[in-house]
Amino acid sequence: MVRHEAGGGHAAEGYAKADRESRGSRFATSGPGATNLITPICDAMMDSVPVVFITGQVRTELLGTGRFSRRPTRSGSRFRS
Fold first, then answer.
1. Dihedrals φ, ψ of 54, to 5°?
2. Which of 8, 58, 71, 77 is deepest in the core (most CB within 10 A)?
3. CA atoms within 13 A on the CB side of 3
4. Rounded to whole angstroms, how far apart are CA atoms 44 and 71?
């Protein structure tokens, strides 16, 4: 259990690096929780570390209405591999 999503993301990456047979994984909430994972995601991609990140997202019709998070998770982190 960690106090911040980024710390958990880096911990998942460290787990995957330490145990080369496994993949690290991390769950986060939508909005700020997903945004806080961007740095660990980029770090894992740059080091070619197999980590699975899963985030929540509100229904499409609720995006931009001021409920939950105002930003779609995908457009905040346009990753291409």
1. -125, 130
2. 8
3. 0
4. 24
